């Protein structure tokens, strides 16, 4: 059962008593956006993070979505990636390829991964160049309010520290407004070398989903969503504010347990 909080300034909260309900609703959400994008533009651009998020999206690989989604029209990107070989257990590409994408008909040429033979800096630069070329050909839309790419959907997990993609609290790349893709070599979580979308690119998306489950995320969810003033101005999850798109939070009851009471009521 889902409890929807208030839709405010392009943000919606969806809170679930049961994790299976979250999985089903997340799959329906992605499928609906895919259908709308394909009808409008003939393609669907989606950027993923890794971790437990991929497992939560597994419902897409079951009926009816496995049969009804226009998989060959998908272009898949990674909102962040660990700079490790593609067969490494830490690779977000490997995680998605092993557990989500092999079950569907996304063409290998449309799974846009980083060049893992390069340094983090070089990989970020090359990935940004790739995205710029796809924006030029309109396989990825362009934002109406900036020169940033406008992905149809970016799906993010959130860490217990409030990080999204590989944008960590108090790290200098959080404030990068010049690049589309940047890199870090000192990640507070291993492995240390990563590439990541910058916050302007995340916020330029037509739709952003942030998924958080478990009580370990409850404090960060509270700080990111509730009006807590200036307590956490640099918390990356709090900085996710679409410029003209829509943000949807998918939370289980444990991650939502510290939200203000009004956020836990259905309307």
UniProtKB/TrEMBL annotation:
Read off the Pfam families from this record: Glucosamine_iso
Tell me which Gene Ontology terms the entry assigns under biological process.
carbohydrate metabolic process; pentose-phosphate shunt
Q: Which Gene3D superfamilies match?
A: 3.40.50.1360
**Keyword Transmembrane helix applies:** no
Q: Which GO terms describe its molecular function?
A: 6-phosphogluconolactonase activity
GO cellular component term of the entry, any: cytoplasm
Keyword Hydrolase in the entry? The reply is: yes
Q: What is its EC number?
A: 3.1.1.31
Task: Tell me which family the UniProt entry assigns to this protein.
Answer: Belongs to the glucosamine/galactosamine-6-phosphate isomerase family. 6-phosphogluconolactonase subfamily.
Question: What's the protein here called?
Answer: Probable 6-phosphogluconolactonase
Q: Give the organism the record lists.
A: Heracleum sosnowskyi
């Amino acid at each position: 059962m889902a409890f929807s909080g208030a839709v405010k300034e392009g943000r919606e909260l969806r809170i679930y008593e049961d994790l299976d309900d979250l999985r089903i609703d997340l799959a329906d959400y992605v499928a609906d956006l895919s259908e709308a994008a394909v009808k409008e533009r003939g393609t669907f651009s989606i950027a993923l993070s890794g971790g437990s998020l991929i497992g939560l999206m597994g419902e897409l690989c079951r009926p009816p979505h496995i049969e009804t989604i226009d998989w060959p029209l998908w272009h898949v990107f990674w909102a962040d990636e660990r700079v490790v070989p593609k067969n490494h257990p830490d690779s977000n590409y490997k995680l998605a390829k092993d557990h989500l994408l092999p079950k569907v008909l996304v063409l290998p040429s449309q799974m846009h991964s980083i060049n893992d033979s390069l340094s983090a800096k070089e990989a970020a630069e090359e990935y940004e160049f790739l995205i710029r070329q796809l924006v030029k050909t309109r396989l990825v839309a362009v934002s109406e309010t900036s020169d940033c790419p406008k992905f149809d959907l970016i799906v993010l997990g959130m860490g217990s520290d409030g990080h999204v993609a590989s944008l960590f609290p108090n790290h200098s790349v959080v404030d990068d407004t010049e690049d589309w893709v940047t890199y870090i070599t000192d990640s507070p979580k291993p492995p240390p070398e990563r590439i990541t979308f910058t916050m302007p690119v995340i916020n330029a998306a037509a739709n952003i989903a942030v998924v958080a489950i478990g009580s370990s995320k409850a404090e960060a969810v509270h700080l990111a969503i509730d009006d807590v003033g200036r307590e956490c101005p640099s918390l990356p999850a709090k900085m996710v504010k679409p410029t003209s798109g829509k943000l949807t939070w998918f939370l289980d009851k444990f991650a939502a347990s510290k939200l203000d009471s009004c956020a836990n009521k259905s309307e």
